[in-house]
TrEMBL record:
It comes from Candidatus Thiodiazotropha endoloripes. One of its GO terms (molecular function) is hydrolase activity. This is Twitching motility protein PilT. The keyword S-adenosyl-L-methionine does not apply. Transmembrane segments: none annotated. It comes from the Bacteria. SUPFAM superfamilies: PIN domain-like.
Length: 129
């Protein structure tokens, strides 16, 4: 199973072609794709038009949605944020810390284009698709 971050979904729905959206297009319907509940919120809140929102909701019916946060994951996320900050790296968005920590913890690869995930790959073992 591959977790796909909102950075890729947003580009995908916007019609942007890059390595990540090409990969998503390649694996949709072929390999199991998942999103986190946080990712689902980030993507769906961005649609301005009901028609686009409805189309996205329909597509996500065939995608596994994972519950990403609970008390234990919140603590591990804070620990990962602090570990990176001690290395001089500050992650801008709490949601990205949670998503990366969840993927590391569950040993799930993450398809992303957001640069905030790179320190998790380089220092904490996040697997990049």
């Amino acid at each position: 199973m591959i977790v796909v971050d909102s950075s890729v979904w947003i580009d995908y729905f916007s019609g942007i072609e890059n390595a990540q959206t090409d990969k998503l297009d390649e694996i949709l319907g072929i390999k199991p794709v998942a999103i986190g509940d946080l990712i689902l919120t980030e993507v769906l809140q961005g649609f301005r038009h009901d028609k686009d929102y409805t189309a996205a909701r329909k597509l996500f019916e065939d995608v596994t949605v994972l519950d990403m946060l609970g008390q234990a994951m919140a603590i591990r996320s804070a620990e990962n944020f602090r570990a990176l900050r001690k290395k001089g790296l500050t992650i801008r968005k709490t949601a990205d810390v949670i998503i990366a920590t969840f993927c590391i913890d569950q040993k799930l690869p993450l398809l992303f284009s957001d640069k905030d995930f790179k320190p998790f790959v380089e220092h904490l073992g996040l697997v990049r698709v």
